[in-house]
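re: ur question from yesterday

yeah so i grabbed the chain u mentioned. its 369 aa long if i counted rite. heres the sequnce exactly as i have it in my notes:
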Amino acid sequence: MSLNATESSVRRQIALILTAWGMPQNLIETTTEVMVETDLMGVDSHGISMLMQYEQKNRDGRLNLQAQPQIEMETPVVARLNAGANLGHPVSVQAMNLAVDKALTMGIGLVTVRNSHHFGAAGYYARMATKRGAIGIVTSTARGIVVVPTRSAKPVLGTNPIAIAAPSGRNSPFVLDMATSTIAAGKLKVYGFQNKPLPDGWVADGEGKSLNDGNVAYDMFLGPKASGYGGLTPIGGTPELSNHKGYGLGLTAQILAGVLTGSNFAPRDRPTEAPDAPENIGHFFMAIDPKMFRAAGEFESELDGIIDFLHATEPSSPEQPVLVPGDPEDAKRALRLKGGIPIPDALAEHIQAVSKRSGVEYVLEPNPT
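ran it thru and got these structure tokens back, copy pasting raw so excuse formatting
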């Protein structure tokens, strides 16, 4: 069972809790917008369900929810921002907008962020660039040590997302948003809430065998009694299915968003950090103006043609037409704007508890349609 909550009530619930925690209003508006849009697009692991983790980080003293993002270095083409140990949503919106500003003037813009925390779904920020006519590229490091490199018994990397978005004309933009693991760590939580078994190949134990219980897997990798063995598989799932490619992509994200920004490398730095230390997650944002390379409108028109061609490609099953990255999220968003955002019973209980501990009203309400 689940509650299909109205978009407005989800927005209000998040804002009430962030307000109770002391986040400034301008940052609340940005954070709430990113989280709600993430839920609307069906990325359930990165929206309102993150409130429990944010609450724990705040109680541990890791978050500085009052911090406003600061520009530490800037040239006409590049910039570096400091999130001030706040949540990553506000600084990431600022960083991508700044990258696009630079791209529309210089052709390309690159902005890095350090001293940040979880920023939600990478695709949200890549998609931002397309709304202003630019190509957006986003990567981030991750806090969780959950991904097992090829041939490893122990997790070393995070899910380290990569997102790339490009503007079209008649069609919705191309938006590739992916973790470099076979699944995002939050999917374990979602499958656990829904009591759904994990497919084979998503998660491996220390001997390389599949785990199928999302709750067991989540506790094993992310819980307080994590075993230190096994984890999420890189894209590909198994060595036989070329998971070394996913491993390489995850390491690439670590280099761009971690090494370049001076942010933490979790498996090396977490064991020696203080319990209340900021997580120092790093983000990477690049924007490219197609008009520097093609006449105005040519890039979008050609991408439209490619998207149309792909949509018209004969599917292997008539019930499942060929899609382009970004299509599933657009379709999900349209459905959820009409029918509401699903809140499983287990998640609703957690949100009620967070609301009570925060001293605010529980306001999630069912969509009437």
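noticed a couple things. The longest strand covers residues 108-116. also The chain has two domains: 1-59+327-369, 67-182+233-312.
anyway ttyl
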